[in-house]
Amino acid sequence: LAFALLADASVADSLPLRVGAAKPRLTVLNSTDRLIVRFKDEVETDSKAGNSASASADRVKAATLRSQPMSGERQSALSAAARMHLAPVRRTGGGAHVVRMPQNMLLEDAETIIERIKQDPSVAHAEVDRRRLPLLVPSDTQYAQQWNLKGAPGGIDAESAWNVTQGSGNTVVAVLDTGILRNHRDLAMPGSRLLPGYDFVSADPGGGFATANDGNGRDADPADPGDFVSATEAGKAPFAACPTPLESSWHGTHIAGIIAANGNNAVGTAGINWNTRILPVRVLGKCGGYTSDTSDAIRWAAGLPVPNVPNNPTPAQVINLSLGGPGACTSEEQSAINAALNASVRAIVAAAGNDAGASTNVSPANCSLVITVTGTDRNGSRAAAYANIGANVAVAAPGGFFTNAMDVGNGILSLSNTGVTVPVADALAYVAGTSEAAAHVSGVVSLMLAINPNLSPYQVYWVLRGSARRFPDATCTTSTCGAGIADAAGAVQRASAPPPNPAGGGVAFTPAPASQPGTPMTPTTPVATPVTMPPGGATAAAPGSTSGTTSGGDGGGGCTMSASGEPEWMTLALACLALFRIARQYRRRATARSS
Ligand SMILES: [Ca+2]
Ligand SMILES: [Ca+2]
Ligand SMILES: [Ca+2]
How far is Cα 257 from Cα 252, in angstroms, rounded to an integer? Predict the structure, then answer.
C-alpha cells in the first residue's frame, strides 16, 4: 500500500551462508545423551531440611549432601537397572543427579531406559534430560526491524518455526508479479535457488511494448525493468487506468524477499524460507497486466503447457498472487487455478485487496480454491485503512500499516531498489498492503511443505487455518479476516499430522475436517465446485460496468483502476494502490540520509 525506502547502508559484503540444514536441528531436538535421577533417601533429607522447624545444622548437612557426587556403589546399581553404563556428570542445584549414557539416543529410546531405572526401589524420580534450543535468531543486519517474523501480537512466529525447519530446496514458490531484481544482494542465492522463470507480459493492444517496458512481449527474462508511469504517459493509452504518475515499485522483489530472502547471512533482511527455490514469473508491467497473461502464467508455473512458451522445467507447489483488480473471478482465471491445483500446485495464495472494502469484490481473491489473505498490523489488528475483508478470506497475515515517517517501521521491511524509474542500487523498503500479507502465507506454506511434501491443497488450507492464532481484538473476526493470524510455528507443527483428505479425491476445501484440535474457528469460506469451461473456450468475463476506483482510504494519491474500454481488465499489484505521495517523500528523505 505504502512504501518507504531505507538505504541498506549497514549491510556487510556478502558472506558465506551459515544456514544449518533442517534435519540436523531436528535430530538434536529428538535425542539426548543424558538422564536426570533423584533418589529417595536424598529426597527425604531435602524435605527434612526444608522444614522450617528443623535446626540450621540439619540444613547445612542437607546442603552438604546435595553437593556430594554419586557413590560408586550407587552408580553400579543404577547402571545395572538401566542395563547400560551410566556415568555421573554432576548434581543439579535441586539435588538431582545428571548422568550420561554411552551414546546419544532418540528420546523414545531414552524413555525406555527411564522406565528401567524407575524399577530400582531407591529411585524417587527419573526423567530424560531433553535438549532445548535457543529460538533461532538470524544474523541479518535488519532483522530487529522484522516484527512481522516474530511472535504475538502481530507476527507469524517464524523464529519458532525455524527451530524445526528453515525450508527445503525441493519446494518451488512461484511469484507472479512485476518481475525480479535478480542481482539484489539478498537474493543472490546459492545453488540456483532463484530459478530462471519467465516473462509473460505481452504486447499492448496496439502492438507496442509500453506496458512490458523491456522492448518485447513474452520472453525468457523476468527481470523487472521498472513499472513507473511518467507524467507524460499518465492517463494516456495504454495507461488509461493510471491517471497519475507512478514511481517504480519493485513489487515482485519485495514479495520474493518476504518469502525467501537469504536468511541468517548477515545481510539485510531474513526471508521466511531460507532454502526454497523461487520461480519469478513476470505478469505485471507498467500500470498492471492482463488476466490473460496472469492465467497463462498460473498454468505455466504449474508445469502445464502454454502455446509458444517452453515448458517450465521446475513446476511450483506454491503460487503467490499479490495482485488483483475489481470484479468477479473470471472463468479464465478459475480455469487456470483449477488446472494448476490439479497439476503440481498445492496452494495458490491471493491478496484480499487494498480497498478497505470487500474481499469478495476483488479478483483473483474471490476465485474458488485460492487461499485469500487479508492484512493485519503490528498489533494484530485489522489494517483497517486498506485491508479488504470478507467471508472468502482464509487467514490473516502481517500487512503492516504506517502513516508517516515516524511509524514507518510498522510496515513490512523487505528488498527493494533506490531507482525511481530504472533499477539503480539495492535497498530495503517498508511497504504495507495485503500483497505483503499474502507473501507471508506463501512463505508459511512453503515451510509446511518442507515438513510434509505430500500435503494436498485441502490439507494445506486446513492446516493453515487450524494453526492460525486467535485475533487479539475485535477488529478482526473469524467471519471477516479468516481463521486467525497465520502462525508459522503452529503450521509447521501441524503439517506433519494433517487432517485426512475427504473421500472421493479431487481438489476442494470442503467438507471441513471432522475434528481440528485447537481450531480457533468455524469454517466460513464458501468454496464453489470446480468451474467447468464452456465448450469452445471461454471469453474472459469483463467485470461489467463497474469501474472501480481504488485508493488506500487515507487520502493518499493513488492509481485508479478502471475496466471500461479494455478488452480484458487490468490487474494491478496491490501494493501499488495508494500513498505514492508519501512514498516519494520517504524516498527523498531516505535518499538524502544515505547520500
Ligand atoms: Ca518482455
Ligand atoms: Ca523480459
Ligand atoms: Ca538476509
Answer: 8
Which of helix, strand or coil describes residue 33?
Answer: strand
Ligand 3 mean position, distance from CA 275 (Å): 12
The ligand placed nearest to the CA atom of residue 12 is 3
User: Ligand 3 centroid to 16 CA: how many Å?
Assistant: 11
Cα 324 to Cα 358: distance, rounded to the nearest angstrom = 13
Beta strand 87-91 pairing with 97-106: antiparallel
Considering every ligand atom shown, identify the ligand nearest to the alpha carbon of residue 204 and give its number. 1
Closest C-alpha to 190, from 313, 20, 316, 16: 16
Q: Kindly report the pTM of this predicted structure.
A: 0.72
Q: Each residue of 117-151: pLDDT tens digit?
A: 999 999 999 988 876 655 678 999 999 999 999 99
CA of 350 to the centre of ligand 2 (A): 24
What ligand is nearest to the CA atom of residue 14?
3
Give the distance (Å) from ligand 1 centre to CA of residue 48.
82
Distance from residue 223's CA to the centre of ligand 2 (Å): 6
> How far, in whole angstroms, is CA 108 from its chain's centroid?
32
The three grid cell numbers given for residue 139, joined into one nine-digit string: 544474523
Average pLDDT over residues 230-236: 95
Q: Which helix (H) or strand (E) holds 414?
A: strand 412-417
Residue 97 bears catalytic tag: no
Task: Give strand pairing partners of 485.
Answer: 396, 469
Q: Which residues, listed in sequence order, are joined to residue 288 by a DSSP beta bridge?
A: 285
Active-site residue identified among 251, 335, 344, 487 = 251
SS3 readout for 555-590:
CCCECCCCCCCCCCCEEEEHHHCECHHHHHHHHHHH
Which secondary-structure segment (H or E) carries 396?
strand 393-398
Contact present, 225 and 422 (Cβ < 8 Å): yes
* Ligand 2 centroid distance, CA of 371 (Å): 28
How does pLDDT run across 468-490, given as a tens digit for each residue? 999 999 999 999 999 999 999 99
* Grid coordinates of 75: 552408580
Residues 178-196 pLDDT 10s:
999 999 999 986 667 999 9
> Which three cell numbers, joined as nine digits, stand for 283?
505478469
Residue 44 CB partners (closer than 8 Å, separation 6+): none
How far apart are alpha carbons 428 and 296 in whole angstroms?
31
d(CA 471, CA 387): 15
Does residue 177 carry a catalytic annotation? yes
The catalytic residue among 322, 359, 435, 467 is 435
